[in-house]
Amino acid sequence: MRRTLALIALAALPVAVLAVFFVLPVCGMVSRGFADGPGAVLSVLARPRVHRVLWFTVWSAGVATALSVVLGLPAAYALHRLAWPGQRVVRAALLVPFVLPTVVVGVAFRQLLGESGPLGFLGLEGTAAGIVAGLVFFNVAVVIRTVGSAWESLDARTGEAAAALGAGPATVFRTVTLPALRPAIVSASTVVFLFCATGFGVVLTMGGLRYSSVETEIYLLTTNLLDLQAAAALSILQLVVVTVLLAIAARVRTTPGVRRSVARPRRPRRQDVPVLIATAALLALVAAPLLTLLAGSLRSGDHWSLANYRALGTPGTALLVPVTSALATSLRTAVDATWMALLLGGLVTVVVTRRSQGRAERRLRGVLDGFFMLPIGVSAVTLGFGLLITLGSFRDSPLLVPIAQALVALPLVVRILVPVLGGVDDRLRQAAASLGAGPLRQFLTVDLPVVWKPLLAAAGFAFTVSLGEFGATSFLARDEHPTLPVVIFRLIGHPGAMNYGMALAASVVLAAATAVVMLLVERLRVPSIGSF
Predict the structure, then answer these.
(1) Is 433 exposed, middle or buried (0-12, 13-18, 19+ CB in 10 A)?
(2) pLDDT surpasses 90 at 66
């Protein structure tokens, strides 16, 4: 009974926060969708425009997922099975796009594919192909990290035995390596499809009114058309689909198939040249939008200048506040969201990783674990929309945006910390307790030395997620205190060379801030992105 009460006490705060700021908004959104009965939801889903939105969401996410896998597999092999100079730098560089704010990715591709951009001659600006390219750019890192981690865990002796029996490299890959990697590839593909289908900022920035995904349609229905019931109906559909995809990903992730490697990464051979060339090409494709974004931010008219950056300090016709004030707001919000996510995630991790004694305690921990993972199944746009319609009286609170961003980052924090803290041998804590150490002393002497690096990595991920979060924040941010992603979107939505130049400069500042944090996190060697 004492252990059960302690478990309930630890879980009380995160349970209360999720109940008020997640369950209540989601239930309010569901009830709004069914306000006029199930027939209202079906009538929304029967609209021709909704059919076009659903079809575009499915096929664009499917094509982007396939391209991400095709481009990511060679890089996963080169970065996780081979050893060559500069490997860690390239690996970190290919991770950066995944943590960039989606609105920054959209602006970068608009600059790259625009009429005055290096690839403007292709005519891809504002097209479905351009949106797919942006989604691939954003998500190929998931394939590299997820499949790469599985690849370096494969037992190399199986492939070597097949080669010794006369199988060529292609046969070894098809008959030995690929079957062993299939669970990781399917898991990565599921997660990438989910991210592509919910790529709010990329589609909204690049698609405009011509192309719309489910998330951008929810945003437009809410902010432009004030059709809250239709937005709620689409949110319900998205919630069901996302939950199913995450259940599939979790089921595949538990599929056995890899063993620890017995061979260290080897130096490249002649047959590895095509793979290295493909990796170099992918690096160039990743660098092109970012370099174009940087170059565009340094252009003012026909000459090089820092005018766009100097203009960030003064409000313009499209803004009520200077961009520098928006950056300060983003940083303050990110700090608040980070400590909230770490506090909630730390408590959740302790609750779900302690060894259970008895069936009742084990069942209680299982229920709490499932409850704490609920935010994984809801996109940021749906969460922001739910908070908007259910907690309208709380909207002016400066804590609402950090809380929403903390809930978005919470699953990522938990996925990083749970494998680490769950791997600590409970007998060490029991030994410390037998020597008179209390719970706090046990944590400081047993758990903290193991978890401090992943804790820093979780803080870095939570900070970057908050810094670039756009889906929920676009509903909740106040006009006088916008975050930087919201300001960037407003700038590109207003005509004028100065507004667009300021958007480019602000995007560079935001991209640099997130990239620096994630390059530091990469040195901590956290678990693969696709593991959550």
Answers:
(1) middle
(2) yes
